[in-house]
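Can you give me the bound-state structure? Components:
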Amino acid sequence: MAGVSPTEPRPLAQTLDLGFARLDLGRLARTGDPETVLAAGKSPDEVVAILRELAAHSQGRAVLATRCADGTLAACRAAFGERAVIDGRGRTVVLGAVPQPLGAVAVVTAGTSDLPVALEAVTTVGVHGSAADLVVDVGVAGLHRILAEQERLARADAVVVVAGMDGALPSVVAGLVRTPVIAVPTSVGYGAAFGGLAPLLAMLSACAPGVSVVNIDNGFGAGVTAARIARAVARG
Amino acid sequence: MAGVSPTEPRPLAQTLDLGFARLDLGRLARTGDPETVLAAGKSPDEVVAILRELAAHSQGRAVLATRCADGTLAACRAAFGERAVIDGRGRTVVLGAVPQPLGAVAVVTAGTSDLPVALEAVTTVGVHGSAADLVVDVGVAGLHRILAEQERLARADAVVVVAGMDGALPSVVAGLVRTPVIAVPTSVGYGAAFGGLAPLLAMLSACAPGVSVVNIDNGFGAGVTAARIARAVARG
Amino acid sequence: MAGVSPTEPRPLAQTLDLGFARLDLGRLARTGDPETVLAAGKSPDEVVAILRELAAHSQGRAVLATRCADGTLAACRAAFGERAVIDGRGRTVVLGAVPQPLGAVAVVTAGTSDLPVALEAVTTVGVHGSAADLVVDVGVAGLHRILAEQERLARADAVVVVAGMDGALPSVVAGLVRTPVIAVPTSVGYGAAFGGLAPLLAMLSACAPGVSVVNIDNGFGAGVTAARIARAVARG
Amino acid sequence: MAGVSPTEPRPLAQTLDLGFARLDLGRLARTGDPETVLAAGKSPDEVVAILRELAAHSQGRAVLATRCADGTLAACRAAFGERAVIDGRGRTVVLGAVPQPLGAVAVVTAGTSDLPVALEAVTTVGVHGSAADLVVDVGVAGLHRILAEQERLARADAVVVVAGMDGALPSVVAGLVRTPVIAVPTSVGYGAAFGGLAPLLAMLSACAPGVSVVNIDNGFGAGVTAARIARAVARG
Amino acid sequence: MAGVSPTEPRPLAQTLDLGFARLDLGRLARTGDPETVLAAGKSPDEVVAILRELAAHSQGRAVLATRCADGTLAACRAAFGERAVIDGRGRTVVLGAVPQPLGAVAVVTAGTSDLPVALEAVTTVGVHGSAADLVVDVGVAGLHRILAEQERLARADAVVVVAGMDGALPSVVAGLVRTPVIAVPTSVGYGAAFGGLAPLLAMLSACAPGVSVVNIDNGFGAGVTAARIARAVARG
Amino acid sequence: MAGVSPTEPRPLAQTLDLGFARLDLGRLARTGDPETVLAAGKSPDEVVAILRELAAHSQGRAVLATRCADGTLAACRAAFGERAVIDGRGRTVVLGAVPQPLGAVAVVTAGTSDLPVALEAVTTVGVHGSAADLVVDVGVAGLHRILAEQERLARADAVVVVAGMDGALPSVVAGLVRTPVIAVPTSVGYGAAFGGLAPLLAMLSACAPGVSVVNIDNGFGAGVTAARIARAVARG
Amino acid sequence: MAGVSPTEPRPLAQTLDLGFARLDLGRLARTGDPETVLAAGKSPDEVVAILRELAAHSQGRAVLATRCADGTLAACRAAFGERAVIDGRGRTVVLGAVPQPLGAVAVVTAGTSDLPVALEAVTTVGVHGSAADLVVDVGVAGLHRILAEQERLARADAVVVVAGMDGALPSVVAGLVRTPVIAVPTSVGYGAAFGGLAPLLAMLSACAPGVSVVNIDNGFGAGVTAARIARAVARG
Amino acid sequence: MAGVSPTEPRPLAQTLDLGFARLDLGRLARTGDPETVLAAGKSPDEVVAILRELAAHSQGRAVLATRCADGTLAACRAAFGERAVIDGRGRTVVLGAVPQPLGAVAVVTAGTSDLPVALEAVTTVGVHGSAADLVVDVGVAGLHRILAEQERLARADAVVVVAGMDGALPSVVAGLVRTPVIAVPTSVGYGAAFGGLAPLLAMLSACAPGVSVVNIDNGFGAGVTAARIARAVARG
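Here's the bound-state model for the whole set.
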């Protein structure tokens, strides 16, 4: 595999070349957010190696891997032990200390099955410097559930709404709050939900303004956006 | 055009052959609902001819044409005058007297732009023997609007919910009522609504049970189903 | 996993918060139908816990779990023993006594492979208070099969038609009966059936009025709607 | 537009080069069917020119243009006068004498709106050397209509079934006859019919064997296939 | 599972009710083709039971099961031994003697990977009373391969063309032969072939007339149609 | 049109019922944003009537109509004269004074053809209380164009990126800035852009975090979200 | 329209800012190809203005506008007179002298209706510095047509193949030549061709290697790629 | 399985018939590229047999198998030992000596997960007679990575760009280089990436000219095209 065998890392300007990956060490300075490892499509060894290098260049600040399969979670547990916080349900690994939180993000789910995606968002918010408040199972089939939580929503600087099936919850929430709503469609559902297509299209067509949407099951992306908002608002 | 030129109507058992159409005169006896004319794809002359024949065989009971283009509405006005009730917005023509209503159907719309489809449903309910109550513009972006109408919903034997965009309203309504909810997705919306695909998929994936769905913009189909239910309940 | 660990259940108004789920105890009073557990996406332990809590708040009336994987069926068998009725083919668990049936629902399948979905509908009808009559394998390729069963169809207050492949059966049935037809497309078929898309679109485009459609393989949804109709008709 | 200006026709082996088109004069000898002009996407002048050249090389046998817009029909009328048979509804032009028919093809439509496609098939069958029998408006919502025509179907060597919406008719017909059924989905319908996608998928998933399918609205293609079968059977 | 437990078979007119299936014993008399078992979606026991019943009512003529999984093949081998002909690649089981062949069908594949589908077609042709000639791996990337087989194609009464990927072969073949071409798209290919969608759409849009199309991977359907044609031509 | 004729407005709690529309007067208090008129699907008269009522209840603050067809723009010009600011390219009407801006939003387009959507966003940002800076035609085919504008991007509290075709610009921008990026796919492009589907999917799959997406051509939705962020950050 | 009114052009490094467009004057030096105007989505005045500015900065070398509507063609004729070469069928405007051609490109069409796209490619090849040879109407339904032109194909350095419907021609051509084949799917066809989707998917799944694909109807893109290849080969 | 059992190979003109496959031995002479084995859909034994035959007829020049599953790789290792070069990550087997390289191809990936596809391209380029230079993980989220490699890109005669997710990299690269860019969308990504559909559509809609696209994950196809270009340029 000429050209991709891991030779000695060559430091380019703010780039660390591992042969199979080219780490963007300047991302934190440029965007305020550190580089994250999307573990899907990488071997457990590659994930461990990248996390280790990122941590070595992060001045102790937490680095994050998402979408870790069981083998990758085990490899991280073996490699990092107590230094890593591992969430088997949200499939995340956090290595290093999360920053002091600035601002607050509410993470709301329509159903119980949306929890793994919501947990990825909760962890991401923490690593990216804000505090997450998780509100579970408040789908629109029983409206009193979300209406009973309006105060918690009002305390947040941004609201992440995680829903599969009909994807109706973001429209309802956006009609109740003053903050941006970041909607996360999930692959929860079957048949005509088409793996998340139904809630994705519904959320993009939300009848209440103030809703923007991330990819299906992308708790990470929603968490980054929400944390950017909450941090900025808290800083003023 | 051998074989399709309108020769003298040949009466088959409960069928009237106009050459270009074969009317199912037994439908009323068989299903309780008279045959209806879907005007789309037929010439104004054909629609007038079919309505006239259906009326001649209906013992004075109303017959209905739906999805009439402007030319067809004008042709019906010219042909039938006062005997026809013509709704330019719902694009329906009713010829003859509607039956005495049995039971009640609520027809609810999420927005103002859903009105034409809702009006098709309202007219259909009447022709098919039940009474319709129209509740307009109570979409989920302002929840208090639908919550304020719960009593009207509770008086109905079936609820038709007409919504485009995110198609969220049927899930909310079905969580509030005891009757079947017939959901009608509309082509209202743009972009990722994909001509009604978004609300169609969302409604099929509704998170509240008791929802069934008809074709996009199919106020007629929803009206027939709702009237069948309301009539049966009223008859006991 | 702060916020989702099962602490002591907090009773909100008609809501029971299990941490990972928020049970809507008011649903029965509000809609006439008890809350049901969609087991897909939940762990066996979660399903058992939710069923137990729902049963504890249902005054002995049956509660239902659908789409149970083998592990969940086993966990329910271990937890509830004789108190639960478990259908391995329809993948349902019923805990508690089903109500005295009101009215009748015919559940019709086009083919043998549609049976699991039909069985989910049959069980749902029973739990929701009506009686189901199952008519199997009467697809339109041999018309005499459905024509021979017209009397059974005529005895029902609502007809559920379960079909995959071309989804042609609901159009045929709706031309023969006076009751609403609830069509259930199934994922039976291959290639251009696209996992149930072909019968779904065909049923939404049914050429006979009186047909409404639920999600692919959604025997549960069809059963709830049909039982609502049959109960209402029986009560008058 | 160097290279495409109509210079003098260069005869290649069985090919006639008009600059903008290259006519396959050997097709009749090779396949038994003469080359046909698909008028869509060609200017009226081009269609007239191609028809004229094809007729000049066909020994008086009829040549056919399909999908002619109004302007093309008018140009053909002006150019060919009585020598052309023009069908404004099926949008075909036939120039020259149709062959003596061999065998018989039944062309069946589900509804009145399917007529234009059926007429394209009828004309094509004639030009390709067989006799067509047109059976109109026998959709499955009123089964007695098709059941009453079984004898006409039984007399055919091949059956073309033209249907939009749910595309259910070919499955029903194929369960009643011994001949191949060529199914033509039409763009009749709206919403979830998606311009003919619903009947196309349904027909491809037909639950009765013996059905093959052509493109949406492709009466021509069905006619060619059916005529090939009928001619071959008649010849034995 | 009231209503579906296999009680004693009730003979309806030409129907045999096994509880879980309703066999259409009149199909052979009505359509010339015996009922076939689509094994997918049925348990091995069900397939064995249906084959046994069909054979008992077929006067010794062969009956066919298609799409048999390994377990079903094994169950048939155990149940029927030498009396069944089992093809593990085409996934078919034939029980009983195939009829004396009438007419000939060429079955052509574009590539080696299309063989399983072609073998299903070959077996189906035999069971349905005609003779199959298999021509393998003559895709259009090397045109001389199909051009070298033109004589074999010319001897057939119908040609089945099996192709995945670009689905180009039917257009080429239909330009070379006088018989109907039945095109079978296969799921061979990856990426933008989308499980057979690419060749399906390409074949439906074939630029040569005389092509009709069956479902993706549906060698059975193509075989039935081709055999119907070949038998009829041979009988004259 | 019983039930929808505009009778005297009935004031419900914070709702104004015009018969054909039910205005949500409490939206400003509840969400910080006033109700907006989506003119598509409404008649010019309806738009004028709704704008007039909204303005009458807004204490002089600007109200907005979007997606106004030419007839609606003309009707607003006739009805409101100098009091309305009308943008024929962005298809917006603003009635009343825009608020004093808080914070700043950069609105960036990939190409010239994206301008109408960007102008809708610019106007929306102003009506919703923030200041917009428009950066035009900086697509990724010439990277120096966006790199030359990094300072302007850095001054914004949120960045709206409007792009059709490949939808590549949001990924590039999100790698350069610290603020949330709201991506707006446009229907600019042809063929495989599928009316905006290509950039929509690409943006949802953006390889840089911090991107959320709104509906195709939805400059309004992006403007509301961006203004909510900018206002909140400016307020601290 | 603050911010987009054309003020005095501000020269950035190799960029010319017209307010509504930002011309990439460095593209020729950077990529060897001058910037082109995609006229779709721009007003006639904008196209004229951009062409004029590009010409003023091109040292007399030809500049190109594609996809010009009739109004834009007329505006260019009025503005540039004899200096522009205008092709109404290919919808292109060329202003200035085309370069001396290097290398040769064959542009091949499957049918007559593919001509407009092929002409766009022919003109693009010329403007981008190579010579085009147009071969028309050699689709695979009559194989002898393309086989007769093999020598012309062999003289080219790259082959552009333009085809709609089944998109079969590129696979055939790529099996015959040594050069790269650039395939252009066209929107020619109907029904299941889905506006070019069928040939697009077929070409992407071409069974012969050496085929790459551009967007539907994108004669321009194919021309640029082909000219890049031909120029490079000619230069060696 | 009459007709497909491997009898003695029959040599047709430049074709070798193995019964289950028909090898196109004339491809090298005709197109400059030897026949390759697409291993997917073939058994390990078949792949070994075909490779052996191809090698026996290739005068020592390397032959290639792609998309080899683990079992096929093992079978090749067992059959060919040291004579084969096997890449488990790119899933290729090369048997025989690769030609002396002519010209150069840059193979560029957006991310680490795109490596397997890029390795297939690298190997293909070598077997097809050119030299590959692999540039890994230079996606647009960190633009400095690709900008730092511009010199390597400039040394290539063709550039292959491999990217999943948003597919943005080809547009950026095509704006920087003078050579054709062959874009390879990958199935890397999730949700709205839809298995490679998102980058496929984005690349087809690339906003920079000079980009052509191959099938999802088709490193082989890109490699063949790129090598054809590089060889031709090197030969002049």
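A couple of observations. Chain F touches chain B at residues 1-4, 12-15, 19-22, 24, 26-27, 38, 40-42, 46, 67, 185, 187, 195-196, 200, 215-218 (CB under 8 Å). Confidence is low (pLDDT under 50) at residues 1-12 of chain F.
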